[in-house]
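Researcher: Hi, I'm a grad student and pretty new to this. My advisor asked me to get structures for two proteins we've been looking at. I'm not sure of the right format, so I'll just paste the first sequence and hope you can take it from there.
Model: That works fine. Here's the first sequence with its structure tokens right after it:
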Amino acid sequence: DSGAADESLFIGTDSGSSVTDGNSNVAIGYKALEDLTTGDDVVAIGSEAGLQSTGTDGAVFIGTRAGKTVTDAINAVYIGFEAGEINTDSGAVFVGYKAGKNIPSGRDCTYIGSFAGQGGTTSQSGDFNVGVGAFALVGIKSGDDNTCVGKRSGAGITDGNENTCLGSESGTSITTGDQNVCIGYRAGENPKTINDCIFIGTD
């Protein structure tokens, strides 16, 4: 029973049921965009996708519970089962099974791959991080400006900042270290809190 919703499509029980002044929205699935009231240009496909989104604009939620508790993230993309389930910041791109699942805040972060940037069970707040690959930056907490590409790259980084890890399992042991560069399979595998180091090559 959506109100003034122009050029919009709602399919599924309670999908888009709270819209009062939202335009060009698409919600398909049980409770998809159920709480949306005034957002425009939002796409939600999947059971409970974007369920609690209220004033979001230009966001995409695809997958069961993708961005479920997101309230006002602008121009964000959540694709995958529970991807970005509790995220609230703008500019997020979370693609993959549980990608960014436990990240409530984190500006302009990009996590692509299963469990990429999933975060722990405590509050996460890291900004401007990029994790590409299964389990890349999976343990991130408050670390900022990290770039990790490859399976499990930077998987141990929690509060470390400005680290670059390129290669499968590169920089997996770094936790709070800053400004390290790890290039190659398992490069920089052992250091945890070391800073300003460069590791190139296997192991």
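Researcher: Oh nice, that was easy. Here's the second one.
Model: And its structure:
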Amino acid sequence: QARTDAGAALFYIYNTPVKPHVLLLFYRLKLSYATCVFHFFLVFSFKPIIKALYALQKYRKLHTLRKVSELMILQVTDITCAGSFAAIYNSANTLFPEKEQAQADAGIFVSQIKNDINFAIQENGIFSAFISYRQCGSLYKLTSLYVKRECQKMGSGSKLLSHLEAQMPADGIPFVKVLKSAPWARDFYQKHGFLPYIPLVLR
């Protein structure tokens, strides 16, 4: 009985969700305390590898499903889509620390849909990402580029940015303002060829 209690004590002290069949192995075989400790650490030394493999499998499954699902880029002019834009924006903003997260309602995006050129990615009838921009001569100002949190790291942002570039003439120049507190956005744009721009101030 003392041996099985030792195995159980390890489980509760570390408070780790060991799979039931691992605990049963300790009980049924009535392993010695030393052997029990050895097996315990043997199992958990592989835990990071197992978690990484599960994560990779999950990503591949999602990525495969996403490639099979119908991806469409649509131009959005209907202001009733403002609610969908707000939901995408709020989801994407969860990347910020909780104190810095901003929530938007549909009203903010009504004027954006009216005044800007907007494209959205539609997956199985639902918007998952959108880009908005306005033309100022040869400059194309990105006013928004947001992807739902659960759909990020799958190429949606790159797809929308490429779509914008396809709309521009050869001499068109896209530019965007990036918050200092959003380094992931800065890295994304730099990866796609954007360079930091510091305007000259004449005195």
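Researcher: Is there anything I should tell my advisor about the second?
Model: You could mention this: Helices lie at 2-14, 20-29, 33-45, 47-68, 82-92, 106-115, 156-167, 183-191.
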